[in-house]
Amino acid sequence: VVEHGQPRREVKTTCAYCGVGCSFIAELQGDEVVRMTPDRDGGANEGHSCVKGRFAWGYATHQERMLSPMVRDNITDPWRECSWDEAIDFAATRLRRIQKEHGTGAIGGITSSRCTNEEVYVVQKMVRAAFGNNNVDTCARVCHSPTGYGLSVTLGTSAGTQDFKSVEQADVILVIGANPTDAHPVFASRMKRRLRSGARLIVIDPRRIDLVRSPHVAAAHHLQLRPGTNVAVINALAHVIVTEGLVDEAFIAERCEDESFRRWAEFISDASNSPEAVEAVSGVPAQDLRDAARLYATGGNSAIYYGLGVTEHSQGSSMVMGMANLAMATGNFGREGVGISPLRGQNNVQGSCDMGSFPHEFPGYRHVSDDIVRGAFEQSWGRELLAEPGLRIPNMFSAALDGSFRGLYVQGEDIAQSDPDSHHVLAALRAMDCVIVQDLFVNETAAYAHVFLPGTSFLEKDGTFINAERRINRVRPAMPEKQGLSEWETVCRLSTAMGFPMQYNNAAEIMDEIATLTPTFAGVSFDRLDNGPSLQWPCNDAAPDGTPVMHVGSFVRGKGHFMMTQYVPTEERSNRHFPLLLTTGRILSQYNVGAQTRRTANSSWHDEDLLEIHPADAQMRGVADGDMVSLSSRKGAITVRATITDRVPPGIVYTTFHHPETGANVVTTELSDWATSCPEYKVTAVQVSPSNMP
Ligand code: SF4
């Protein structure tokens, strides 16, 4: 079709914002996208969309996009534009020099959950084969790493158990530490439809999120706990279920380890886990805990949906295990309407983890010390690989400060803004000799970089994303690459310059290699994805059409394993100097650090971060609605505008982290999950006081 003298065409692709993974039709006139229309055949969205996917794609052509590579000797020097060849050579020379002077382990890379699986895969391959170490980590380290660990040790695999459609069969929906109407709007609509047609709702969250307040949804129970007491609350629910004889004995006998169940049941029956004991810790009335537990155990199909309010705690992994214990004890696995579903934040959190961008795991969650697995990768890649795990992101920062880690490639992540305890992160970046940032824009991290490599937007990418239901969605290029080189090609060139030649003719070849080396992806190819429906992994000989619901008949690990989940209070406590607890989250129109949405029309809907404060706390401090206030913690202080609301209870304040001008992570702490080092973003002791700023 020709309109206004230019051919009109359509390209089917996938939204690059959240883990729902909505399918869209990009409508183009010439090479310009003119509209994004939700795809009626989209497996995850069935024709629905939200304000981000539908309207916030203009950043792809924003005037601030950097299209030329840049280098500089020192971070105080001005940037100098250069050719791709010069930038790659500059980066490789610096990285090789660091390794010569400080050892092979002195450099590493961070992958991005905004990038395609193929782009992530080549980065972890470059680090392992070209850098010669396992110092590769993903931005999922700071969001869903406890999901990976907690679900893996209890059930056997690091992924949610259900497809989105499953919620239509749920009778009880338990939402923990998630705000789906803002963060996962299209799935939230599906959830609300089911709630309107009769399912009962339990919400565990310190804030009165929209689901609780919706006039169309009767929240059966809102357990408004103190931040940091998740594990105590999940243990109390389990205590009621065990001590009142509400466990599913037949399911446990058939599907779970007898020994671990008996030990867990004894532990959970202890009076310290009783609702009365937990009321004192969490602030949730004991009767509410009892009622919620009874409803979850006896209300029919019960499904758990959760977000970063579960994982971003010092006990994030324990909480994930606690949810798995609860669902196993009540037989809520292995069919539609039940299970545990992490609502993944970014578009490809699931995929970036699946692709092996962890310092201890190859693609498909297989440990680097496994000789057989490592041997298969060595044979395919033609390079000897290390059996020892590498550094996690927080360890890279610590090692940078002691001088032993000096070079970092960062793929599409703004660690200077997104990671906690910003002063610590910036000091680590300043201490390095070679920071390479690949991104669309000169972001906050690029201020500390020596090499800037332009990235590609989702409208230029060719590859795949994997959403929160393990659905492998095609991402197709609607526009030509604006900077002339795909991101996977950039990485291949850097790897080659570092002495490990890497070459593919197209992204499909990368997926073919992934499928060859990763059993859960064995049946996946671009050809299949382009000529049939999207697929949910595992997809292989045992499941040729993919796997919408996992753990049917048996768990991936065989028998389900109950884990002890002793509640341990966070070290972050409110005190005389910092009497309030801060928790953070997102708002509907903006996305994470805002690098994309702030460069679209959505920016006018929420042009600054706001601090929610309860009327009683505001009055006590002489703060009026709309005042600028100082928000301080033991880590630092920022200035932010207050909004007075009873969405938060007394003693708790809440803000978002979308705007670098606010810099909310200046105040968050260095504390992290005991198992995975996922930061404790959700609990910070703070003080709020009037600011002199207008
Ligand atoms: Fe994109 Fe998520 Fe919105 Fe869907 S719900 S359009 S994937 S941001």
From TrEMBL:
Keyword Hydrolase applies: no
Keywords for this protein: 2Fe-2S, 4Fe-4S, Iron, Iron-sulfur, Metal-binding, Oxidoreductase, Repeat
Gene Ontology CC terms: membrane; oxidoreductase complex
GO terms of biological process kind: formate metabolic process; respiratory electron transport chain
Domain of life: Bacteria
4Fe-4S Mo/W bis-MGD-type domain sequence ranges: 8-64
Single Gene Ontology MF annotation: formate dehydrogenase (NAD+) activity
Family statement: In the C-terminal section; belongs to the prokaryotic molybdopterin-containing oxidoreductase family.
This protein's name: Formate dehydrogenase alpha subunit
Biological classification of the source: Bacteria, Pseudomonadati, Pseudomonadota, Alphaproteobacteria, Maricaulales
